[in-house]
Specification:
By secondary structure, this protein is mainly α. Helix 1 packs parallel to helix 4. The protein is 77% helix and 2% strand.
């Protein structure tokens, strides 16, 4: 019964106290359950030995019962044969086997009762080990939850440090600067691309559009005078008519003769 006493002490021990002293509660709990299971295996072996002893005692008792009956038959045979002396010796041997039978019977009954108690203790031990396994799983879950909460708190404490937020602020300012430089580069690229003189005239055409619309709106609401109409750009001047010089051929007579006289072209 020493094995059960040891196991009972182990199971009834305060697991929470063991966890508080262990560096790794999960490993400690696994080790405890493993040791309990190993002890359970040993307990089963001892119970099996006790059951074997009980069966052996029962067999020996049965043998003594059979021997007692056998010598009783022999005593009857001697009586029938008229040999009372031989019958007395047979009865004496029967008495010896009866005594052995009674002793084995008592031992067998005691062993049988002990085996039943051992079986009951073994069942109870197995139930407690299963309970310890379930408790182990719950404790491990509690440990993991506590570790997760501690990790979250450590992270939050790290975020409370002003240095981290200042770093974020510096990065935000740097990104703003990069975006501003990119917009400036795009604006300059648009202004310097193409015919700049043409772009200046386009600005003159579209520049006062918003102000003019606002003035018209105020006039419509009775909050101001109507704006002067925007001056249209002067139309391009008409091209001057081109002078066309037409050279005419003039014949001038040379010499005084008529008729066949030569003529000079002017």
């Amino acid at each position: 019964m020493g094995i059960f006493s040891r196991l009972g002490t182990l199971i009834k021990s305060n697991l929470n106290d063991l966890i508080s002293k262990a560096e790794d509660p999960q490993k400690m709990l696994n080790q405890i359950v493993l040791e309990m299971q190993n002890q359970l295996v040993e307990a089963k072996k001892q119970v099996a030995v006790s059951i074997a002893d009980e069966k052996r005692l029962k067999k020996q008792w049965d043998e003594q019962v059979e021997l007692s009956k056998e010598w009783e038959r022999k005593a009857m045979m001697a009586v029938r044969a008229g040999d009372d002396g031989l019958a007395r010796e047979a009865l004496q041997r029967k008495s010896e086997h009866d005594s052995q039978q009674a002793e084995f019977g008592r031992q067998w009954e005691m062993q049988k009762a002990a085996v039943e108690k051992l079986k009951e203790s073994l069942r109870s031990l197995n139930d407690k080990i299963e309970e310890a396994k379930r408790k182990k799983n719950i404790l491990i879950a509690r440990q993991k939850r506590a570790e997760a909460q501690r990790a979250i708190q450590d992270t939050m404490r790290g975020m409370d440090d002003k240095g981290a937020f200042e770093s974020f602020e510096r990065m935000a300012q740097k990104v703003d600067q990069i975006e501003a430089e990119a917009e400036a580069s795009t604006e300059l690229g648009g202004e310097l691309a193409g015919d700049t003189l043409q772009q200046r005239f386009k600005q003159l055409e579209t520049g006062p559009g918003a102000d003019h619309a606002l003035a018209e709106l105020k006039a419509k609401m009775g909050l101001g005078a109507a704006p002067e109409p925007r001056a249209a750009l002067p139309a391009p001047a008409a091209a001057a008519p081109r002078r066309v010089v037409v050279e005419e051929e003039i014949e001038v007579p040379i010499g005084g003769g008529s008729g066949g006289a030569d003529k000079k072209k002017m």
